[in-house]
């Protein structure tokens, strides 16, 4: 499957937007570890800002950056949201409520506990009536989302944005799912190249090969976030060179391989 990359959005520790990350990956700036910024996307109306969860705001902040850089309107872009764990804080709140005698769960928490809650907020914010798909495949959620988004881009012949996001769990759940940092990335794909396209990706399967290493500039603690498995691809995108990136997938016999080349 061949798609073109139109724009990127990103939020992570020491990675405050795609322009910041791009300069680090390209060797133009030094990386400095800082907490992931707590962004409140202004694309959300005030009611949705109050009701939305941490993971929804994180995902939408990345998606908003990618959309604004793309030259497209929100109602022109289908979406694929992917997350391994959803919002760990909401999961913790619900588990704590169920452990009490009253077992009273906040309606807002219940609403935000489902994986398609960020997609709902996004569609309200953009007025989009195009398809929105949610994908979850544990640690391989980004790779599964990439396949889904690329397939939709080609089959429907329309722009599709992939949004990957994951957060740390609070104690005590953190002991069972030790994600250290919040991270989200959005990648907007198109079926054909435009003058402003960043790169062309050819996506397919090959016999098992080692996964591409993470960028050396980044702390190893970030690797625990499943959404951050996109970082080898984004580093290649930032360098703008012809390279091949390999990602682990669902079995040991095949790898998801992305051949990346600049759009000429």
Fold topology:
Elements lengths: L1 E11 L2 E2 L1 H8 L20 H6 L2 H17 L7 E5 L5 H12 L7 H7 L3 H10 L5 E4 L5 H16 L3 E7 L16 E8 L8 E9 L23 H9 L3 E6 L5 E8 L3
Parallel strand pairs: 3-4, 3-5
Antiparallel strand pairs: 1-2, 1-6, 1-7, 5-6, 7-9, 8-9
**Largest sheet entry:** 9 strands, mixed
Global geometry = globular
The parts where pLDDT drops under 50 for at least 5 residues are none
Q: What is the tally of beta strands?
A: 9
Brief account:
This protein has helices at residues 18-25, 46-51, 54-70, 88-99, 107-113, 117-126, 141-156, 231-239, and strands at residues 2-12, 15-16, 78-82, 132-135, 160-166, 183-190, 199-207, 243-248, 254-261. It is of the alpha+beta class.
Protein architecture, described:
- This protein has eight helices and nine strands.
- With 264 residues, it is an alpha+beta fold.
- Strands 1, 2, 3, 4, 5, 6, 7, 8 and 9 form a nine-stranded mixed sheet that branches.
- Strand 8 and strand 9 form a beta hairpin.
- Helix 1 crosses helix 8, helix 3 packs across helix 6 (117-126) and helix 4 crosses helix 5.
- The longest helix is centred in the N-terminal third of the chain and has 17 residues, at 54-70.
- The two termini are 19 Å apart.
- The model has no long low-confidence stretch (mean pLDDT 93).
């Amino acid at each position: 499957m061949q798609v073109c990359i139109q724009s990127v959005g990103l939020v992570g520790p020491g990675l405050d937007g795609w322009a910041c990350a791009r300069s680090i990956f390209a060797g133009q700036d030094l990386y400095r570890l800082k907490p992931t910024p707590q962004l409140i996307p202004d694309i959300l109306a005030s009611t949705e800002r109050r009701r939305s969860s941490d993971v929804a705001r994180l995902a939408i902040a990345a998606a908003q950056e990618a959309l604004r850089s793309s030259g497209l309107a929100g109602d022109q872009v289908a979406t694929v949201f992917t997350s391994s764990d959803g919002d760990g804080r909401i999961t913790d709140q619900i588990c704590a409520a169920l452990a009490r005698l009253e077992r009273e769960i906040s309606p807002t928490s219940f609403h935000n506990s489902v994986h398609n809650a960020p997609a709902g907020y996004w569609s309200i914010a953009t007025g989009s009536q195009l398809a929105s798909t949610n994908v979850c495949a544990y640690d391989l959620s980004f790779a599964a989302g990439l396949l889904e988004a690329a397939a939709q881009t080609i089959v429907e012949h329309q722009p599709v944005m992939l949004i990957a996001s994951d957060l740390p769990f609070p104690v005590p759940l953190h002991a069972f799912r030790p994600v250290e940092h919040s991270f989200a990335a959005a990648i907007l794909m198109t079926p054909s190249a435009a003058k402003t396209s960043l790169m062309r990706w050819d996506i397919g399967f090959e016999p098992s090969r080692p996964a591409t290493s993470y960028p050396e500039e980044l702390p190893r603690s970030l690797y625990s976030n499943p959404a951050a498995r996109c970082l080898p691809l984004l580093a290649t995108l930032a360098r703008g060179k012809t390279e091949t990136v390999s990602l682990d997938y669902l079995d040991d016999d095949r790898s998801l391989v992305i051949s990346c080349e600049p759009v000429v």
